[in-house]
Amino acid sequence: MIDPALLRTCALAAEGIPAPPSSRPEGRVLVLDAVAVLGDFASMLAGTGQPRRGSGEAAPTVGGSTDVGGAPPFEILRDDLEAAVQCVIAAREKNRSFAVAVVAVAGATGPDVSAAVSRLLAADADLQIVLCMPRSAMSPASLEGLEHDARVVVLRPPVQQTDVLLAVRSLLQKWDLLQQVAQQRAILEAVVALRTAELAAVNTELVEDIMRREAAEAALAASERRFSALAARAPVGIFEAEADGRWTYANERCLDVVSCAEEAGPRVSLLSGVHSDDAAALRDNWQKSVGDLAELQSEHRYVAPDGQTVWASVTALPERDEAGNLTGWIGTISDVSERKLREMQLTLADRLTSMGTLAAGLAHEINNPLAYVIVNLEMALEQLAGDKREVVEMLADAHNGAERVRELVAQLKTFSRVDEAEARAPVAMVPLIEASLKMTSNQIRHRAKLTCDLGAVPQVLGDEGRLAQVVVNLLVNAIQALPADGEGNEIRVTACASASGEAVIEVRDNGCGIPTTVLSRVFDPFFTTKRVGEGTGLGLSICHTIVTSHGGRMEVESEVGRGTVFRVTLPGLAPRGEPVAAEGPKSTQLRSAARVLVVDDEPHLGAALRRSLGGHEVDVVRSGAEALRKLESSGYDMVLCDLMMPGMSGMQLFARIQRSWPSLAKRVVFMTGGAFTPETQAFLEEAPNARVLKPFDLAELRTLVSRHAGRMTLPPPAI
Q1: What is the C-alpha to C-alpha distance for residues 248 and 330, in angstroms, rounded to an integer?
Q2: DSSP state letter for 590
Q3: CATH code for position 635
Q4: Per-residue pLDDT for 342 more than 90?
Q5: Residue-wise burial string across 494-521, b where 16 or more C-beta atoms lie within 10 A, e elsewhere
Q6: Which one is predicted more confidently, 583 or 528?
């Protein structure tokens, strides 16, 4: 443990302040003059010949100590060398060591003096000796050995007092210097120890700080590795960009979304590769975000070098410096193509639903006047048969035109049912293909030669409207693949049954063909080989979805410069026997008169039915309320009732008849120009009653009425 006084001295030394004199012991002199060789040594040291007492010191006596003014403290012994050795040892133990011992002996032998001096030197390592003795007292060898000891000064006789005094004072000065050196060394060692301890503490703290820093760096490195792994495997694209939008970092998903090459990724701009239709809007949005230092949100399309289009949702947050200036962007990119596909499909479905509703309503409105036009034309032809041949021909042409309108309306009604959810029933594919060809005949006729080979095809359990949508879409695709002014353009449509009983439909064109590099992606959403603005890339994707939802498959084969064939294969229904309805003659002889109530808000149609059913008793009313009044007062064999009427509908009237005349309810025949509301469609699916479609087949209608003759239901008796 370091002495506190020494620490204070060290502190003073560290600050450059010399140590106080009291901090260093004063040199003391031991005089061993057993035979008074030196005389009065106290006077000699004082240089006055008269001893003086020091403060608190006794007068010099044998064996006592004295302090003479101007002289160092000393102690005179009159004893032998052994006593001197013990005195030196005792003084050393009391920390009052002697600096110099003056030894004056006479008569002792050389070996005895040499041994005694050696013991004195051994008793105190810092003791210096002035040896005063005659030469005869020592052997030359012993004297020579002592003379070579740096701590021993041998004064040869004759010994002068001045020589002794000079020797003592010189050795005192040497001792004092050595003590100063020792003290400075001790101070230096203490300072070094103190500084070493401080450095050790600082080093310990530094080591701990380094360990903490290394631990923090290791934790940061682990966190960065986790973040890098998370960013690399994130399901969304993550990017950092400079203020101008150029990427400084982009993870793999980000590059996948924008379909950029990996080596070009880090320097690609957020605005590069954007679809031309979206570029202007994105640029405006970007400039506004830059100007306002606001968050950028955008949904736009990226176009890859191979033509693939990807819908992306981009969110970018601005980064600012301390002055608030824009320094960069951080953000995410997500592939929202599937969501956009669903949105577009929903939009398309809504549009088709609206078109279907419009088509059904239009068909209904056309069918009403068309019904009485055809009935009247058939009646006129019957009555003019054989007379006025030219008029008959004109009426025949008019009748033929009306029949064509009826067929078109029937086709329109087929396509108005694309919004019916899973309304599946046996579908005859050949009539469906023929209807699709008629719908696209005008476009085909002006673009290509059409060749059809429609063989025996099994029925398919499916949604007629959606299957018709597939065929029409394939026909339109084939038309668009042909050059507008090309000669030799051809579209070939074939239908047949496969060996396993499937329905196989092919639409083939000899157009430009599809490159093999993109052939496998023709059914992908938003993929198109057409120019921008000519297609959404959804048509074939929707067709593929419809076909697969029916348990079928859709395939494509193509060769650039030679054409493309799309093949649709659908599971066929097992054939079963179906009763063949005997088609009655165009002019049917009435078997017996029937009493018929016709309920239709179209007056011309009612009049036409009354004339065409001339052999029967026909009452015509224009509303459900009138029909109820008639039924309350008269009996009828059957009721021909329109479904869609203002006020009381045909469905509401039927419900009243079921309650009041249940037997007559079975003989209500519904007339419809098209069920264009879900309620009407559901009613017709549930009701077991017969129905006739407008415009009527007159022969079929007359046969139906004749079957109900003689089944009159009378009104309830009046009470």
Answers
A1: 10
A2: P
A3: 3.40.50.2300
A4: no
A5: bbebeeeebbbbbbbbbbbbbeeebbee
A6: 528
How many DSSP H helices and E strands does the chain contain? 21, 23
SS3 424: coil
Residue with tokens 């990724």: 265
Going by C-beta distance under 8 Å and a sequence separation of 6 or more, which residues neighbour residue 36?
A: 78
Q: How far apart are the first and last CA of the chain?
A: 136
* 329 plus 374 within the same structural domain: no
If asked whether residues 363 and 469 sit together in one domain, one would say: yes
Please say which residue of 570, 587, 615 terminates a domain. Answer: 570
Long-range contacts formed by 164-173: CB under 8 A, 24+ apart: 164/38, 164/44, 164/102, 164/130, 164/132, 165/44, 165/45, 165/47, 167/130, 168/29, 168/45, 168/100, 168/102, 168/130, 171/99, 171/100, 171/128, 171/130, 172/27, 172/29, 172/72, 172/99, 172/100
Are 432 and 469 contacting, i.e. CB atoms less than 8 angstroms apart? no
Query: What DSSP state is assigned to residue 269?
Result: B
Degrees (nearest 5) of the Cα angle 41, 45, 47?
110
Q: Which residue has the tokens 């030359």?
A: 140
3-class state of residue 430 by DSSP: helix
CB 23 within 8 A of CB 5: yes
Q: Which two tokens stand for residue 716?
A: 């309830």
Q: At what angle do helices 429-439 and 389-415 cross, to 10 degrees?
A: 110
Could you count the other beta carbons within 10 Å of the beta carbon of residue 74?
24
pLDDT 10s digits, 265-293: 444 677 888 888 888 888 888 888 888 88
Rounded Cα gap, residues 589 and 702, in angstroms: 9
Query: Are 330 and 354 contained in the same domain?
Result: no
Long-range contacts of range 529-534, CB-CB < 8 Å, 24 or more positions apart? 529/307, 530/480, 532/275, 532/276, 532/277, 533/277, 534/480
Task: HSE, CB side, 13 Å, CA atoms: give it for residue 471.
Answer: 31
Q: Name the one residue in this structure whose structure tokens are 């649709």.
A: 568
pLDDT digits (tens, 9 = 90+) for 587-641: 434 446 889 999 998 888 888 888 888 888 999 999 999 999 999 988 899 999 9
Q: With helix as H, strand as E and coil as C, how does 95-108 read?
A: CCCCCEEEEECCCC
Return the closest-CA partner of residue 191 out of 21, 16, 7.
7
My answer on whether 527 and 665 are in the same domain is no
CATH number of the domain to which 284 belongs: 3.30.450.20
Cα 285 to Cα 196: distance, rounded to the nearest angstrom: 67
The tokens describing 403, both together, are 């029949």
Q: Which residues contact 387 (CB under 8 A, 6 or more apart)?
A: none
